[in-house]
Specification:
Layout: H1 2-11, E1 36-41, E2 46-50, E3 56-57, H2 62-74, H3 95-99, H4 110-124, H5 127-139, E4 145-146, H6 148-157, H7 159-170, H8 178-189, E5 191-193, H9 195-201, H10 220-233, H11 239-245, E6 250-252, E7 257-262, E8 266-271, H12 282-294
Antiparallel strand pairs: 1-2, 1-8, 3-5, 4-5, 6-7, 7-8
Bound molecules: glutamine (GLN).
EC number: 3.5.1.2
Keywords: Acetylation, Hydrolase
Family: Belongs to the glutaminase family.
Length: about 300
Amino acid sequence: MDALLRAQEAAAPEVGQGRLAEYIPSLAAVDPHQFGMVVASCDGQVHAVGDADVRFSVQSISKVFTLALVVATEGEGIWDRVSREPSGNPFNSLLQLDQEAGRPRNPFINAGALVVTDRLHALTGGACDALCDLMRRESGRADVGSDPVVARSELEAGHRTWALAHLLASYGNLECPVDQVIHEYVAQCALSMTCRELALAALFLARDGVLSDGSPFLSARQAKRINAVMLTCGTYDSAGEFAYRVGLPSKSGVGGGILAVIPDRGVACVWSPALGPSGSSAAGLAALDAFTTYSDWTVF
Ligand code: GLN
């Protein structure tokens, strides 16, 4: 696929440029000079370049799937506890949450994701297990799972996550005990997957909510709405820059992965560990920018 090769070429100067997520010690140990990208289309074709089959820590990309699971299970009730506006603030900011009385701006910043995980845990009795089930089924890989070393590393060093969860609890916006929510949250973020596996697992968002076996998971309207929240909030305080340069519903993670949905066409997943200033992969952004420049896989 020509646009994929051009994306890889455009990203090359950015690979290794930027910082690793040093606040999670085991992510800081990853080789930053890796790059992989996959484009999976709704009709079953998969194109891959580079390190497309190397597993990495999906981190915040998991938040799309926990939100989808909550919405699939009980509909729209989660929006009583989380808003749908871009935050314009760093993904782990405490200030805005306090100013806004414990109601997170959106489900993709850390505070919002903690509320979604809390709800999923209350609904299923095992938030991370529910997530792993979905990812295994949709990627076709039974060995997909959470990396306990990464989870422990974040559990021990993630002081801001603890602070956010306690702040949420102080405002009455958690149902489960703080330490349970955090354990589930760091475990879901520590999910280890390849670009290929992630792209396949996310295809339901490009297929109006339909899973790989043809069964309905989300309604078309729910899938459309999750894509809309990804476009406006999926890349934190660089969501505007992403919309300008890429123009696709996207979700990034501090492991260096970015997932982008092209409704009715497919999913692109790119990974390169070094992060730009807002916590998204610098090479990943360059790759998606080029991909949407040299292909007609866009929504605009
Ligand atoms: N687990 C990370 C955290 O809570 C996820 C952040 C991210 O990927 N942006 O800080």
